[in-house]
Every structure is written in structure tokens, then in C-alpha cells.
Amino acid sequence: MDENLSLKTFVVTMKASKALEEVTKQDIKKHGMRASDFAILEALYNKGRKTIREISESVLISTGSITYVIDKLEKKELLIRVNCPDDRRVVYLEITDKGKEIMDDIFPEHQQVIEELFQGISDSDKKTVIEVLKKVGYKAGEKE
């Protein structure tokens, strides 16, 4: 009987994803931050000002939950809300100087943890994984 490669690929992908998520969560936790806090700050740190909706879509946090996380980060003075002058419905988020200082310390260490996870894997293999996972993601997106 032929083994079901699609099913095996799915299981291996999910296990790898869970393992990667756990390692990165533990790394973020040692800096006294939750994964959702870090994800929002990281997006603002690397991409600059974004709307709440853009952040919600990029970090995969529901719009209901993201408001709570943003409120907490704002209270800690790590980000600010900026109203759009052209559209009252739009609110931008910006990382503050305090938030940037924290990310200047945390992000290089976090990036190193990720580099170590992929150590020994060729750039060619990494590119292949990226291409394949994008195809799977697009295909899954069509099913929604």
C-alpha cells in the first residue's frame, strides 16, 4: 500500500510548526513578554507604522483580542495610537522610543535563536521550503 505523502507532509509540517512555535515562545518569555505582545512590537519595529487591521492580519491575532493586547502595550508606553487625519475610522499604531529600545535589545537575540534552528539547512532548501509552504498556504486560503 502506498503511503499517503500528503497526510505525512501535513503531520510533519504541523509538528515542526508546533516545535518552532514552542521554542520561539520560550525565547520571548525569557524577555518577560508574551508572544502576542512581541508579534505586534516586532511588526511595528520592522515595518513601521501600520493600521490596527494590518497588524491584526500580519500577526494572526483576531481583532477582538488585539485591542486588549494593544491597550496593554500602550499602557506600558511601548506603542501609541495615531488617528488618521483623512479617515476617522482608521487608527495607526506606532512603536515608541521605549518600545524601540526594548526591541533593539530583544530582536537580535531572538533572530539568533531562529538562525540556530535553521543552522545546517542550505539556503536552497530554505527557499524550497518557503516556496512549497506558500503554495500550500494559498491552496488552503482558497478553501476558506
UniProtKB/TrEMBL annotation:
Record organism: Oceanobacillus jeddahense
Pfam families: MarR
Signal peptide: none
Name this protein carries in UniProt: MarR family transcriptional regulator
PANTHER family linked to this entry: HTH-TYPE TRANSCRIPTIONAL REGULATOR MHQR, TRANSCRIPTIONAL REGULATOR, MARR FAMILY
SUPFAM superfamilies tied to this protein: Winged helix' DNA-binding domain (SSF46785)
Keywords linked to the UniProt accession: DNA-binding, Transcription, Transcription regulation
Cited InterPro entries: HTH_MarR-typ, MarR/SlyA-like, Tscrpt_reg_MarR-type_CS, WH-like_DNA-bd_sf, WH_DNA-bd_sf
Every HTH marR-type domain range: 6-138
Top-rank taxon: Bacteria
